[in-house]
Amino acid sequence: MEPWALALLLLSAARPAACQASPASPPRYSPDWASLDARPLPGWFDAAKVGVFLHWGVFAVPAWGSEWFWWHWRGERRPDYELFVRARFPPGITYADFAPRFTAHDFQPHAWARLFQEAGARYVVLTAKHHEGFTNWGSPVSWNWNSVDTGPHRDLVGELGEALRHRNIHYGLYHSLFEWFHPLYLVDKKNGFKSQHFVLEKTLPELYDLVKRYKPDIIWSDGEWEAPDTYWNSTSFLAWLYNESPVKDTVVVNDRWGINCSCHHGGYYNCQDKYKPGTLPTHKWEMCSSIDRKSWGYRSNMKIDELMSTSSIIEELVNTVSYGGNYLLNIGPTKEGGIAPVFQERLLALGKWLNINGEAIYESKPWRVQKENGTNKTWYTSKEAAVYAIFFTWPQDSVLHLPSPVLTASSQVTMLGFSETLKWQAAPGGGLQVTLPCMVPSLLPLQYAWTLKLVGVK
Questions:
Q1: Is Methyltransferase among this UniProt entry's keywords (predicted)?
Q2: Predicted local distance difference test score (pLDDT) of residue 443
């Protein structure tokens, strides 16, 4: 008997009841995109604006190249990966041999949660399972390829969730629908995705298990791009999620549920990694970015010029929020469960900026103008009666020209983090000119970006 056939036989015998259809009253949302897409997005997500993304798995053991290490090494068989393994590891080592070295010895979930709170994150998304198939919880269909049975011997998903919720931070779980080398997935792929062995015996049991066990606020789906949503049974799962699951009223999902779903279906849109629409979208969206520009997982050989600076992170955040998006900033922990000091420094700097300027970010809405097109890089957000102008270049004469706001008799201008009301006047040709505080910008609490609060403008 072929190995994959034996795996299918054994898995079928142990198929969890979670995948079986259960009798229920007619659902509020039916398993079709027209119905599912009509579900209102829970309001907490739009209000949150800022999240931290965590790519953590066995790929943190080689810690080289990217989180796609296994695929580049054994799928594409790239020579540079083969040379790296030969130089660093014993002859004949396999990817499975890396798992016991994924120890998480230094993983302190409450310390992580404190760091993310200090960074200003309102939600955190952890990779419960990446494309390598290793699960960061004791998945009953993982064949011991999980963090409870090997490596850390800990429920990483559960421990982090408990710590985050202790600090009232929303918890999301990233889950890859597919796995590069799983034999059942390869059978379905060979069959042109006409069979669903992998979906019924692996993907769906894991999704149901994650929801019932950990009650996530977000399901961040990925790994969908090789097969249609009908193969993944996406609409059936989402109908259960919205109608019957323990998080049916609060959970949000993204748009990666099958070929052609991205940027078309789902609770909010990712569209693609590091997506920047450039114009104001009509649908809620999220921009995910990584401090390490070359990888989402931890790399021991990353260089400082390959990392995002604090100013570039803040600019990306402001640009995203001004266009109505959420900003999800990624870091990769080490195999021991440490967070590199340079990542901590970037996160804490972001939190320091948000501590002063968060009023212009959290719970904000796009204004009628998103960005000024002049020499000063300035973006706008709004909240109730206030408009916020966030600018990144301090003018040499300390006079900032904002062409877009229309003045009224009750107009007032202040700077967040600065107690005095600022002087302003109508600018020739429209808009207003604001006289900024008479001090060297380097003496201000922040040196990256500053926010003017405009009240009584149109």
A1: no
A2: 66
